[in-house]
Alpha-hydroxy-acid oxidizing enzyme
Amino acid sequence: MTHLCLDDLERAARDVLPGEIWDFLAGGSGTEASLEANRAALERIFLVPRMLRDLTGGTVEAEVLGRPAALPMAVAPVAYQRLFHPDGELAAARAARDAGVPYTICTLSSVPLEEIAAVGGRPWFQLYWLRDEKRSLELVRRAEDAGCEAIVFTVDVPWMGRRLRDMRNGFALPEQVTAANFDAGAAAHRRTRGHSAVADHTAREFAPATWEAVEAVRAHTDLPVVLKGILAVEDASRAVDAGVAGIVVSNHGGRQLDTAVPGIEMLGEIAGVVSGGCEVLLDGGIRSGGDILKALALGASAVLVGRPVMWGLAAGGEDGARQLFDLLAVEFRNALGLAGCDSVSAARRLSTRVPHYGS
């Protein structure tokens, strides 16, 4: 089937995934106010295009964390991708490799990180801080040894937010899907009414990250360290002082603190304060090439895309994920040129407006 936009892929994925797995992917925490706000905030933003520009030789290529990428984007970390397709992370990583964009391997991947990194391309590794610091740093070392290019340290999950869809479903991982990077035991597979087994498992394994943990990770690896889950300007400033290579402005896709501000709302202010001290990326709610352009105009160097990649994976495996990247490339190239920009750097000079309708 031909999909003309990401909404088409979303519908196709919803049609094939079991209800509780769709809820695990699509849901947010609490009332899902932040989940809905991510999209609403992006939709409120309008671009001010420039005219009469020479677009000859225009390019959508970008530099992300100091290395070239075919688009100003990377795949966000998403746990347990074999829930969505039997080939899981391997299929998604191959599609990202062929699309020329970085792929972030999750601590909670359902395929060992070494196998995913062996696919090639530009693998990054996402780290959750575990109760056992030694195990956390072992994961960092494994990622570096496997050829990963960066450590994306998620800092907004001291424990998992209350995701009511999963709790109502009594969600648990099927037997064939496991946390492949460390021995998680049976906790994530134990179905209990009114509980999320995945949340119960992470409550046992995760510990709140601290600035001391950030320093421990930086001291343990030569790879660039990126902090994912920054929303406060003060935290962004401290991240620069801590010497990290980048920050991801994100409310975790609306899955952690319900009513946490959408990342796009804080992006411009944070980019201004950081002022080149580290890279600033945006995660949360990106659903089109036009959304990528908005993020660049507000100061991001690139965006992370998570759920839509899983839609492609669910709808068509590796081919479906490839179609997702193809759609975003076509949409971004179209939006970039229509805005009068011949490059990603030109996009960062665009103006934005939030129109006020009525009185």
